[in-house]
Amino acid sequence: MGTSSRIQAGAVMGRKGEEKRQRIIDAANTLFYHKGFTATSFADIADDCDVPKGNFYFYFRTKEELLDAVIRDRSERLAGLLDDLHKDIPDPRARLHRIADVPFNDRHEVAQYGCPMGTLSAEIGKLTPFSQNALTSMYSLLLMSMHHCLAGMGLSHDDADHNARHMLTRLQGAANLAQTFKDENWLEAEIADIHDWIDSL
Amino acid sequence: MGTSSRIQAGAVMGRKGEEKRQRIIDAANTLFYHKGFTATSFADIADDCDVPKGNFYFYFRTKEELLDAVIRDRSERLAGLLDDLHKDIPDPRARLHRIADVPFNDRHEVAQYGCPMGTLSAEIGKLTPFSQNALTSMYSLLLMSMHHCLAGMGLSHDDADHNARHMLTRLQGAANLAQTFKDENWLEAEIADIHDWIDSL
DNA sequence: GTCTATACCTTGATAGAC
DNA sequence: GTCTATCAAGGTATAGAC
C-alpha cells in the first residue's frame, strides 16, 4: 500500500485519505469487472464510492494509474488467498484441487462477467502496455502456486511447468466460454474434468 | 447479405452502396478486434474506410447495429472456412487437426490482440445482450464442426459433445493467455498438446 | 488537504443541403 | 441517395476556492 501510493500521485495522505483512496479502488475494481475499463467512467465510480470525481486526481494522476492501483489491489488479495491455502492445506494435491475451485466458487459472477483478470487483460492488452507487468505478475502468482503443488506431487520441474500452464489455460478458457454462453454449467463441467485430470497425475 | 441489411436500417442501396457498406464493416471489424468495441469510435472507422462518419447512419441505425453486422460478417467467413475444410478434408481426424490449427495460423495477431471472437465476447457480454445471439451462434458453428469430426471418429454423441466443449475451452484459454503474456509460444505449446490429445482419442 | 466548478475534447447521433 | 455541418451529452482532466 505504501509502495503503490509512492508511484502514484505524490499525495501524502492521512488515515482518512488512505481510507478514501481505498474506497475509490474498491468501487473501480467492481465496475471495471462488471462494465469493463473503457466503459466505466469516473462519474460511475464517484456514484458508487461517495467521493467527488474531481477529487480522484488527488489520488491518481490518470485513469490508467487508477487501473494500476486496482490491479495491484487484486494481486494482493490473490496473494493472500494463495497464502491462506498454502497454510491451511499442506497436501499439494488437495491444495491444487482447491485452486481449481477458485473460479468455480464465483461461478455465478463468472458466468455473467467472465474472469476478473482474463476479461480485463483481454481489454487492456489491446489498449496500452501500461499495466501489462502488473497483470502478468498476477498470473505468475497463480502459475507459481500451481507449479509448487505439482512439484510437491512429485512432478519434475519441466512437467510441473507444462501442467501448470495447461491447467491455467483450461480455467481461463472455461471462464471465457461460461461468460459467452452465460452458462455456469460450462465452467462446472470443465472444472470437474480438471479435478479428474489432477487425480490422474 | 440481403438478409442482414433487411434487419438493419431500412436503406435500399445500389451496388455502390452495398460496397460502401461492406467497407465500413471491414474497417469496423479490424478496429473492434485491434482496439475493442467501446474504444473504437466512428471517427476511427471513418478514417480507415474513407466513408464520412455522418454517412454511417444511412447504413446502420446505431453502433450496436454495426457491431451486429460485423459479427454476422465474421460468422459468414467462419462458416465458409469450415465448409472449405469439410470439402477439402474428408478424414474427420485430419480435419479436426486443421480446426485446432485455425488460431495457430494467426498466432502473431492472436498474441497481440487475442482471439477475435473471445475478446469481443468478453467485452460485449458485460455491456448488452444485443449481439449475444449472433456471438453464441458463431461459437456453435465451431462446436458443431468439432462435434461432426469427433462423431466421425467413432465417438458417441455424448462423448463428442463433451470433447468438443473441452477442445474449444482449451483453444479459447490458450488464445487469452497468449495475449496476456504477449507470447505466441503459449498458443503454440497448448495447440501442440491438443494435437496429441486428438491423436489419443 | 479536500472538494467544487468548469474547461476542453470526443462521443454517438441528427438535420437538412445537395 | 450521399454527405457536410452540427448537435447535445458525457468523457477526462484542471484550476483554484475553501
Question: What tags apply to this protein structure?
Answer:
201 residues; Tetracycline Repressor, domain 2; 12 helices; globular; DNA-binding
In words, what does this structure look like?
Two copies of one chain form a homodimer. Chain A has one domain: Orthogonal Bundle (Tetracycline Repressor, domain 2), CATH 1.10.357.10. Chain A has twelve helices and no strands. The first copy, chain A, has helices spanning 2-7, 15-35, 42-49, 56-59, 63-88, 92-100, 102-105, 107-113, 116-127, 132-152, 157-180, 184-200. The A-B interface holds A 34-36, 38-39, 112-114, 118-119, 121-123, 125-127, 132, 135-136, 139, 162, 165-166, 168-174, 176-177, 179-182, 186, 189-190, 193 and B 34-36, 38-39, 112-114, 118-119, 121-123, 125-127, 132, 135-136, 139, 162, 165-166, 168-174, 176-177, 179-182, 186, 189-190, 193. The structure holds a DNA duplex (18 and 18 nucleotides).
Q: What's the quick description here?
A:
The structure is a homodimer of 201-residue chains. Chain A has 201 residues and is mainly α.
Number of strands of chain A: 0
Termini separation of chain A: 39 Å
Order of helices and strands of chain A: HHHHHHHHHHHH
> Rg of chain A from C-alpha positions?
18 Å
User: Regarding quaternary structure, how should these chains be classified?
Assistant: homodimer
Of all protein chain pairs, which has the greatest interface, and how many residues does each chain bring to it?
Answer: A-B, 40 and 40 residues
CATH superfamily of chain A: Tetracycline Repressor, domain 2
How much of the polypeptide of chain A forms β-strand, as a percent range?
A: under 5%
Total discrete domains of chain A: 1
Mean pLDDT of chain A: 92
Sum up the overall morphology of chain A in one term. globular
